[in-house]
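Design job #97: recover the sequence.
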């Protein structure tokens, strides 16, 4: 069996964020309603209890939650052993409570038990970034600018090598073959070569910690990653979600 877990969710009239094991799965601002599902295996480090946290904030430009705001979610389990999605079970479904004008957000937390045939070498042995003696934001900006320079110079192999551990873990957790794994990064590199230019960091970036203080990322005020590409002709934007940690015994950030 190759267990494959997805979170099926709806979000209405809010800026929302979903975390698995205190690591962001997705964040977005919705003026209306969205319903979709996302795989979560890449955020399941090993078998056992997994945590889910959903949070909704006022829509971009608003100060209060909309009266109709809510988030609904559940986890579905499939078996990928045959190469196809075979439904196995549905976990309990949850809804956030009706917005309270005295509370500027909505949210819900839950857990589910997962069984997976792998253990990911990720941020478990990373340093607690909330207790280091250096300026995390300053060091992160330096790292992001390093990656921006690699992309701008067309040094794609060096960029991929920085991203490699993250993608190796994703491939293992998602049961991807070598060709499938390579095509994931290949698509991003293709965009870079065909009109998408990397953006400089903006002044509004802030540090978001996750994984219980062991991961950090730069975000913009729209709650999404600060590492972005833009196609001026098509007016499209490509956001590259990325997080960093510092392995024990080391002093520099690495992508994970």
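Job complete. Output follows.
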């Amino acid at each position: 069996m190759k267990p494959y877990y997805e979170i099926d969710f709806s979000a209405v009239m809010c800026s929302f964020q979903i975390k698995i094991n205190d690591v962001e799965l997705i964040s977005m601002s919705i003026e209306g309603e969205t319903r979709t599902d996302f795989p979560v295996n890449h955020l399941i480090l090993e078998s056992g209890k997994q945590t889910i946290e959903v949070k909704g904030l006022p829509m971009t430009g608003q100060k209060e939650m909309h009266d109709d705001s809510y988030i609904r979610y559940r986890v579905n389990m499939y078996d990928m052993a045959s190469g196809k999605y075979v439904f196995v079970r549905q976990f309990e479904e949850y809804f956030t409570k009706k917005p309270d004008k005295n509370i500027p957000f909505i949210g819900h937390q839950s857990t589910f038990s997962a069984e997976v045939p792998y253990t990911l070498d990720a941020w478990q042995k990373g340093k607690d970034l909330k207790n280091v003696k250096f300026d995390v934001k300053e060091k992160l900006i330096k790292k992001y600018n390093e990656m921006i320079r690699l992309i701008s110079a067309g040094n794609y192999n060096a960029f991929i090598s920085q991203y490699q551990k993250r993608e190796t873990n994703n491939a293992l957790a998602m049961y991807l073959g070598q060709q499938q794994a390579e095509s994931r990064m290949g698509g991003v590199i293709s965009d870079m070569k065909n009109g998408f230019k990397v953006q400089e960091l903006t002044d509004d970036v802030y540090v978001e910690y996750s994984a219980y203080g062991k991961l950090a990322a730069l975000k913009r005020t729209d709650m999404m990653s600060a590492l972005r590409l833009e196609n001026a002709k098509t007016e499209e934007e490509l956001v590259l979600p990325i997080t960093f940690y510092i392995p024990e015994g080391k002093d520099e950030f690495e992508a994970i």
